[in-house]
Design brief:
680 residues; Alpha-glucuronidase; secreted; eight-stranded parallel barrel; 36% helix; EC 3.2.1.139; TIM Barrel; Alpha-d-glucuronidase, C-terminal Domain; Chitobiase, domain 2; 11% strand; 18 strands; six-stranded mixed β-sheet; xylan degradation; binds alpha-D-glucopyranuronic acid; globular
């Protein structure tokens, strides 16, 4: 059972009705014999998977022959396949990383547009078998966007910023880890959800990553991930030319600085020939950057772009640039304005291999935020969305919060740029503004914990992240149920129960931690864990609620507030400018109102706080009850692990409920109509 946690959704557990599969091929033909090739990996994976799922040991042959007497699973790239077997009709429909899967012809065909695509097709076939889906059909599956990366916030000392699953699998004691077993296993997991790039170190980067020893180490990490089609990238510290290189400056327009980066980049490519690129956090939260020298953020990004260009690398330049010392006494100051303020005049000034990486909301991974207005501001710049799998503000994997519904709300949000359909998902794909690049970055932060994320149920978020990067039109529930079957098997009660728990989890968490768009009322100064509504205000971080004795909420209107609503396209701006058209769940994000303001639901704001916190905490009790009902239907080890987490969540939700309701009762002096809060 410990094994099950480790293998996650790749358990390849036997399916109950394997005999229904009358079409079991008798061999595997993988059209590449090079061990670092994803096609070779696909052959091995198919062998292992079919043995587990269907109980049959197949041989893998790496030499395709024109004639096969027996049924085979043929896996390879379109090019190799065509050379040996001739054309196939769907070849023209394949896009980069896409694949064609056919289970209805004489052979099972798994044909990738490239090697990585072939591996994705193999995982797809195994996922179908693993769910006892023996349908016979043929289809092409192409990605929604080219950039499907994860970010790890791993430090060289082995710690992980906002990581909740133990120390790093990549680094130890200042250096790249010697043992890369877990790195290869992680790459396998990521390839199975069609991720193609991993930034291995923290955005708050350290220049000693670029030491000779560590560059060699990065080469080993890349080698370990290459058989899975995963390319390595790294985060850079902007001041490295000074800090590591000993130059007097790190001014991006200084030729010696440029040359320094070109040289380091050469060295990196000598060890990591397929390095995917760089991730840069500059001029944010105390990090150095181009603004230090009065250069623009585009000057900074383009410096890396030049170094990478001839190698085919991409710069992910983070839009998370803001001043963390803004003045709370200033009614119109607003951290949420920062990204658009910093980037709007730079649109079109970034090199073609720069992608601006934008957190989904304007602040910072809160339980509820509107989509960042930057998505529709940048029209001549490639963009990617940054999501968080690691539950920084969302309960540190000690609370079950299934995040696909949150992500989908953002991805499906229509920014109405120029009054034309402009869903966030179609902007980041490059489609809406016709950009060559785009996609997603997910902050994952797996650690050495055998469960990867420190929680069995949290793995649904990693699975969903990958699935949505590939196809954001998938439903949250559909993704979830695939994951449940692959992770826990076929019991109908297990499927229904985990589905119901997961789909209730985000609304529950929002209810007991911060409703009406007021943000997650957690401690923002240190832990980002547990209730601390007082910590939001009266400091320079700008995650303000503006709560006083009579009223609460950020006035982000143009007419009377921070003008943030005006950063959206006119149709959206108008919606958020007006209280009447702002949805209740974003009311306090955009408006400052009295506690007795009446919501669309007919309740007052303060009564909604009380009711929602009680409802949320009660939903958390129900998660525990529901999980408890699965005793005996799930192996003891995983059952007990999750039981422990759900017990914790149920208790912690009560702490949340009581702290928040009491805090606002004290502040407003308005008692709860139901008599639950106050009178202490
Ligand atoms: C949050 C988080 C930091 C992180 C930062 C970032 O503020 O708490 O740990 O460094 O985001 O995304 O850069």
């Amino acid at each position: 059972a410990a094994e099950d946690g480790h293998r996650a959704w790749l358990r390849y557990a036997p399916v109950p009705d394997a005999s229904r599969y009358r079409y079991l091929p008798s061999s595997i033909i993988a059209l590449n014999s090079t061990k670092s090739s994803p096609v070779y990996t696909a052959g091995q994976e198919l062998q292992q998977g079919i043995k587990g799922i269907l109980g049959k040991q197949l041989l893998v042959n790496t030499n395709g022959t024109r004639k096969t007497d027996t049924l085979a699973i043929i896996v390879g790239t379109a090019d190799t396949y065509t050379k040996i077997y001739g054309d196939f009709d769907e070849a023209g429909d394949l896009e980069e990383d896409g694949f064609y899967l056919s289970t209805e012809g004489r052979n099972v065909l798994i044909i990738g547009s490239n090697e990585r695509g072939a591996l994705y097709g193999a995982f797809e076939y195994l996922s179908r078998l693993g769910q006892a889906n023996f349908e016979e059909d043929s289809y092409v599956d192409n990605p929604h966007a080219p950039i499907r990366w994860v970010n790890q916030w791993d430090n060289l000392d082995g710690s992980i910023e906002r990581g909740y699953a133990g120390p790093s699998i990549f680094f130890r004691n200042g250096f790249v880890a010697d043992n890369v077993t877990r790195v290869a296993e992680y790459a396998r997991l990521l390839a199975s959800i069609r991720i193609n790039g991993v930034i291995v170190n923290n955005v708050n980067a350290n220049s000693s990553l670029l030491s000779t020893r560590n560059i060699e180490g990065l080469g080993r990490l890349a080698d370990a991930m290459r058989p899975y089609g995963i390319q390595l990238g790294i985060s850079l510290l902007f001041s490295s030319p000074r800090d590591l290189g000993g130059l007097p400056t790190f001014d991006p327009l200084e030729p010696t600085v440029d040359a320094w980066w070109a040289n380091i980049t050469e060295k990196l490519y000598a060890h990591v020939p397929d390095m995917v690129g760089y991730l840069v956090k500059a001029n944010s939260e105390g990090q150095p950057g181009p603004l230090t020298y009065n250069r623009t953020l585009a000057d900074g990004a383009n410096m890396f772009a030049r170094a990478l260009e001839s190698h085919g690398g991409v710069v992910m330049f983070r839009a998370f640039v803001y001043d963390n010392h803004i003045n709370p006494a200033n009614w119109t100051a607003d951290r949420a304005n920062a990204a658009v303020d910093f980037f709007k005049d730079l649109d079109g000034k970034f090199d073609e291999n720069v992608v601006v990486q934008i957190k989904y909301g304007p602040i910072d991974f809160q339980v509820r935020e509107p989509a960042s207005p930057l998505f529709s501001t940048l029209r001549n710049t490639s963009t990617a969305i940054e999501l968080q799998v690691t539950q920084e503000y969302l309960g540190h994997q000690d609370h079950l919060v299934y995040l696909a519904p949150l992500w989908k709300e953002i991805l499906d949000f229509d920014m109405k740029a120029d009054n034309r359909p402009s869903k966030v998902k179609d902007i980041i794909s490059g489609g809406r503004f016709r950009r060559p690049l785009g996609g997603s970055a997910g902050v994952v932060n797996v650690g050495t914990n055998t469960t990867w994320l420190g929680s069995h149920l949290a793995m649904s978020n990693l699975y969903a992240y990958g699935k949505l990067t590939w196809d954001p039109s998938l439903s949250s529930e559909g993704i979830l149920q695939d994951w449940i079957r692959l992770t826990f098997g076929f019991d109908k009660t297990v499927l229904d129960t985990i589905t119901s728990m997961s789909l209730a989890s985000w609304p529950a968490y929002e209810n007991y931690t911060g409703n009406l768009g007021v943000q997650t009322l957690t401690d923002i100064l240190y832990t980002h864990f547990g209730p601390n509504p007082a910590s939001q205000d009266n400091n320079g971080w700008g995650q303000w609620t503006r709560a006083d004795h009579t009223s609460i909420g950020m006035d982000r209107t143009v007419k009377n507030g921070t003008r943030n609503a005006g950063q959206y396209s006119p149709a959206i701006a108008q919606q958020f400018e007006n209280i009447e058209t702002t949805p209740d769940n974003l009311l306090l994000w955009f408006h400052h109102v009295s506690y007795t303001h009446i919501l669309k639901s007919g309740k007052t704001v303060i009564q909604h706080f009380y009711d929602a916190h009680y409802a949320g905490a009660s939903a958390a009790q129900s998660l525990l009850t529901q999980w408890s009902s699965l005793r005996g239907k799930i192996d003891t080890e995983r059952f007990e692990d999750v039981l422990f987490k759900q017990t914790y969540q149920a208790g912690h939700a009560l702490v949340w409920r009581d702290s928040i309701t009491q805090f606002y009762c004290n502040l407003s002096g308005i008692p709860d109509e139901a008599g639950r809060v106050g009178n202490h």
